[in-house]
């Protein structure tokens, strides 16, 4: 059901990008903002609940302080990186995000075992590789708005690194997609259906990334697919119902919305709302994303003791 909704959402965004005039941009922005508020922000607001079963066995009652101080320290380092070493920050953030997204994708055991990590990395970074390869000037413009004023050479350097990497990774992702399609044809029953549906999701998302703007493509992927699956993973781990999980995340989500609104208001000084919101959103996103990515790399104690458990062959299951 989730996979079908993502496919429909993807092709709806493709239709909007291809056939609607700029007059429809407001409706699209409202829809994407609703996705962020209802799915994207709660996904990040769940980190303290995600952290507890992983950090409490290691640090005992001190785990909240370790979590908070570590989170803030890493976030501050990322913000500083935008000013001290913007090129390295851009490349590092994009590559780390691709790795994290790939780790959270379904693991369907297709292709040679030694190449599966490369396939996961390539698939997880599709939203990045496609943006850099097909929307390079627009990505550079977004980075120019986000980065310090003197970061032009750094953006060119980062683009010079990311562009060839993106084309190579798109090729690797295509090979992985073709191998999965072959595996689907040779499989039967439930496995065949899941492999075909998963490939349809990947193809639909890739089409959005190639056609729509990088912001639209990222929000569709991050909110409609990645965050939704992450929330389901957390719900299963905690053994809660959806209303219970939503109620527990509501305060942090509301606080995040208020902080974003306050930051945008305070930063607005002679600039347009678009540039200000992009700067506040992207730097803020990268600052909280890096500790989020590192946190989600920590396994549960049961997994660490017995080895990481294989992923279930189920598209709707937690990543």
Overview of this protein structure:
It is built from 14 helices and no strands. The protein is an all-alpha fold. It is globular.
Helix-residue proportion: over 70%
> Structural class, judged by helices and strands?
mainly alpha
Count the DSSP helices.
Answer: 14
Average pLDDT rating: 82
Major sheet details: none
Count all strands and give the number: 0
The helix/strand series, from N terminus to C terminus, equals HHHHHHHHHHHHHH
- Distance between the first and last residues' Cα: 16 Å
Radius of gyration: 20 Å
What portion of residues belong to β-strands? under 5%
Spans where pLDDT lies below 50 across 5 or more residues: 309-314
Instruction: Write down the domain tally.
Output: 1
Shape category: globular
Quick tags:
mainly alpha, 0% strand, single chain, 14 helices, 319 residues
Topology, element by element:
Layout: H1 2-19, H2 25-45, H3 47-59, H4 63-84, H5 86-104, H6 116-124, H7 126-134, H8 136-146, H9 152-186, H10 189-211, H11 214-238, H12 242-267, H13 273-295, H14 301-306
Helix pairs in contact: 1-10, 1-11, 2-11, 2-12, 3-4, 4-5, 4-13, 5-6, 5-9, 5-13, 6-9, 7-8, 7-9, 7-10, 7-11, 8-9, 9-10, 10-11, 12-13
Please give a quick description of this structure.
With 319 residues, this protein is mainly alpha-helical. The chain is built from 14 helices and no strands.
């Amino acid at each position: 059901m989730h996979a079908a909704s993502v496919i429909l959402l993807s092709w709806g965004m493709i239709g909007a990008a291809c056939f609607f005039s700029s007059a429809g941009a407001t409706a699209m922005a409202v829809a994407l903002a609703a996705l962020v508020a209802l799915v994207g922000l709660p996904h990040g607001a769940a980190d303290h609940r995600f952290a507890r079963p992983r950090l409490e066995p290691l640090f005992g009652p001190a785990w909240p302080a370790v979590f908070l101080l570590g989170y803030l320290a890493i976030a501050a380092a990322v913000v500083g990186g935008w000013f001290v070493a913007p090129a390295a920050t851009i490349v590092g953030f994009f590559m780390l995000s691709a790795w994290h997204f790939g780790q959270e994708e379904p693991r369907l055991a297709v292709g040679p075992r030694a190449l599966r990590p490369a396939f996961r990395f390539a698939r997880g970074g599709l939203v990045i590789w496609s943006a850099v390869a097909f929307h390079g000037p627009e990505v550079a413009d977004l980075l120019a708005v986000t980065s310090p004023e003197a970061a032009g050479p750094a953006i060119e350097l980062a683009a010079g690194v990311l562009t060839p990497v993106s084309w190579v990774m798109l090729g690797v992702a295509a090979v992985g997609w073709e191998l999965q399609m072959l595996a689907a044809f040779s499989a039967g029953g439930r496995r065949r259906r899941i492999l075909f549906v998963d490939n349809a999701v990947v193809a639909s998302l890739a089409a959005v990334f190639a056609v729509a703007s990088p912001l639209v493509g990222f929000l569709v992927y991050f909110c409609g697919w990645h965050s939704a699956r992450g929330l389901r993973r957390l719900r299963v781990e905690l053994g809660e119902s959806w209303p219970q999980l939503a109620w527990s995340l509501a305060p942090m989500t509301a606080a995040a919305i208020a902080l974003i609104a306050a930051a945008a208001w305070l930063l607005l000084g002679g600039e347009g709302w678009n540039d200000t919101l992009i700067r506040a959103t992207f730097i803020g996103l990268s600052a909280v994303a890096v500790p989020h990515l590192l946190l989600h790399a920590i396994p549960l104690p049961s997994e660490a003791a017995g080895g990481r458990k294989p992923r279930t062959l189920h598209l709707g299951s937690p990543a």
